[in-house]
Amino acid sequence: MSDPADDGVFFVGNATTLIRYGGFTLLTDPNFLHRGQRAYLGYGLTSRRRTDPAIGVGELPALDAVVLSHLHGDHWDRVARRGLDRDVPVVTTPQAARRLRPQGFHGAVGLDTWSGHELRRGGRTLRITALPGRHAPGPAQALLPPVMGSMLEFGTDGRVDLRVHISGDTLLVPELAEIPRRYPDIDLAIVHLGGTKILGMLMVTMDGGQGADWLGLIDPDAVMPVHYDDYEAFTSPLDDFRRHVEQAGLADRVRYVARGETLRLPVRPESGGAPGVPDAREAQSAPGPGGASGVPEPARDAAGTRERGRQP
Question: Which intervals carry biased composition (Basic and acidic residues) (predicted)?
């Protein structure tokens, strides 16, 4: 297992990642239930977890913020609620922030779509912007909690050094087309997959086919899939996504990261580097069809082979 203190994206499990870059440490969608425990999905519905998280909530480093896409039990569970430092800001939807504050998370920040929250550390900044998402089709959306995607922009002295986009639990909906128009240069996207179905019928997260189409739409330099096999409600395994991205000619964009391993993040040449931040990325390969080698992929430039301008 990688050291969670390393810079990069450490994959805890489900949609939970630990992102460390430029002196900032973020936790996304904290889910620390163990195998066999049930996550509450609302309206009396639950789903049993199939996997264990790579680390427990007590093993987390000090956090600058938590980024929470929405309030569902597989993204914010009772273990996280009891174990997280209540002084750490939780950046989330307005609806989730209103529910978290009475639980003691008084610094919860509710963001409307396209609004942002900025953290500062000396000359370094991290801007978290809420992006559109829709958790269910049509009128069924009213039955589920509001969801947001997010854009993380790590900067130095007014310059953007790295952009990381997190999809959140969204379906592929027309509103998402505005994201690449506003952010044409995305270094890494973290996509929530799984083809989650409520009552075995209503799909509320992207399956492998939608995920591949989403990748073509958002057009990041690289993508890391998460949220694909941790719960019984997930119906679209990682191999579905793998097959569709191969058919679409996008397989070279995908970085498969096993639980407990770290995807290293880039330092752009123009940023001049930063102490403790690597200048290439490495990923541990997740199991593919027929088994897993457990051998790391070679270090690769995070931006792939494309050269694109960086806009603040």
Answer: 298-312
The amino acid occupying position 283 is A
Domains along the chain with CATH numbers: 8-271 (3.60.15.10)
What residue type is 27 in one-letter code?
L
CB 271 within 8 A of CB 288: no
Point out the least confidently predicted range of 17-26, 60-69, 176-185, 302-311: 302-311
**For residue 287, what are the CA distances in angstroms to 208, 258, 273, 284?**
16, 8, 32, 10
Residue 307, token pair as written in the block? 């050269």
Burial bucket for residue 157 (CB in 10 Å: 0-12, 13-18, 19+): exposed
Over residues 15-42, mean pLDDT: 95
In whole angstroms, give the CA distance from residue 25 to residue 63: 5
Residue 285 has pLDDT above 60, yes or no: no
**Contact between 169 and 75 (Cβ < 8 Å):** yes
- How far apart (Å, rounded) are the C-alpha atoms in residues 26 and 45? 29
Do the beta carbons of residue 69 and residue 166 sit within 8 Å? yes
Sole residue written with tokens 């938590």: 66
**Of 45-49, 219-223, 262-266, 268-272, highest mean pLDDT:** 219-223
pTM for this prediction: 0.86
Distance CA 97, CA 215 (A): 29
